[in-house]
Amino acid sequence: EDAQRDGFDHYMLKEIHEQPAALDRAIQGRITDDNDVRLEGFPAGEFADVGAVHLIACGTSYHAALYAQQLLANRDIPAQVFSAGEYTTTPAPVRDDTLVVAVTQSGETADTLSSLDIAAERGARTLAVTNVIGSTAARTADDALFIRAGPEIGVAATKTFSSQVAVLALLAERIAEDVSGTVHSDREALLAALERLPADVQDTLQRSPVESLATELRGREEQFFIGRGYGYPVALESALKFKEITYEHAEGFAAGELKHGPLALVTSDTSVFAVFTGRHDEKTLKNVEEVRARGAPVVAIAAESDHEVAEAADEFLPIPDTHPVAAGLLANVQLQLVSYRVADLLGRSIDKPRNLAKSVTVE
Ligand code: G6P
Question: Which atom of ligand 1 is nearest to the CA of 244?
Fold first, then answer.
């Protein structure tokens, strides 16, 4: 088994380190030299009739879906995200121009599969974005788009989240171009950042200083993760990862929501992780001030050149300077390592956390 883990102590750590290669595969052949997005099976114009997008998912895939919702909104495509368990209870109305996208690593999550069935019965076009060729979602949806992350053994999803977001970014570009007939002015910068992402993740992994930080963080009463824009799904995903593998209390919030309740819980025993993507950072800096004023130690994750953020926080985890979409993913990599290190120090069952399954095939 040690050989299968390539010398890493856990599959999760191996899979965190596989992200550069997985991201390479996610985008390979899908971005042309003249910044066209080519998705196999989806010729240009394929999504021209799409009027709205529903994204349905569970767990980590739900956070990737939230990311996609913002990617689409930033290209003027109306998009909504639904937790699959809720969608099966209260399905949102679909029209014949609604594209329902199920985001599911395994392609076997029961709630997501039921949602796909409901959407199809109601006449929506369905698309599965999945890692597993031949999975139920891939077979039952009208179409499938594969993230090519390779097998993921650790119950806590890591590389598949990054690959989902990268592929969903390409899908959002394809849909937006098909619908509008034009290419957004931000596309070039976004695609360049995606192409640089494998190297940027490698860089982040090599320079991550989280070993000593983890010792310091261990044993705090609770951990909050905050972010806005693309930093919001990252905050949710990082909190999920932290609670899954450390069994410690962790919550993620939209940074703007802190003052509407969670702030009441903040004490000097609350670690606050603040994600900065390079967009709307000044607002998140205000939230950092709010929690520090209550004595909470803040760990900021931001571009290495961002001295203002570095100085405003107690601890600083740097990421390479890049586009906000990629910055969120890089911050997520730093926080994957934080969760991993803390869980390891606590001696948790990292690859198979108690009570959790890799794929939940019951509703
Ligand atoms: C389980 C796993 C999570 C995963 C979720 C959705 O809860 O433990 O890691 O995110 O299922 O799985 P899917 O295969 O649909 O992405």
Answer: 8
Measured CA to CA in angstroms, residue 138 lies from 55, 129, 135, 332 at distances of 15, 8, 5, 27
Ligand 1 atom index nearest CA of 60: 10
Cβ neighbours, 10 Å, residue 139: 11
Backbone φ and ψ for 252, nearest 5 degrees, come out as: -110, 145
The Cα 67–Cα 60 span in angstroms is: 11
Non-local (6+) Cβ contacts of 228 within 8 A are 254, 255, 256, 280, 283, 284
Nearest alpha-carbon partner for 101 in 136, 52, 148, 134: 52
Looking at the whole model, is its pTM more than 0.95? yes
User: Which residues of the chain fall short of a pLDDT of 50?
Assistant: none
Q: At what angle do helices 324-345 and 231-246 cross, to 10 degrees?
A: 10
Q: CA–CA separation, 363 vs 138, rounded Å?
A: 19
Q: Alpha carbon of 203 to those of 126, 200, 291, 319: distances in Å? A: 37, 5, 30, 8
- 98's enclosing H/E stretch is strand 98-104
Report residues whose beta carbon is within 6 angstroms of any ligand 1 atom.
Answer: 58-61, 104-106, 109, 112, 155-157, 356-360
The CA 277 to ligand 1 mean position distance, Å, reads 25
Output the CA 156–ligand 1 centroid distance in Å.
8
pLDDT tens profile 124-136: 999 999 999 999 9
Ligand 1 centroid vs 253 CA: distance in angstroms? 20
Query: How many residues are recorded in the chain?
Result: 363
Contact 44, 32 (CB under 8 A): no
Supply the pLDDT for residue 210. Answer: 79
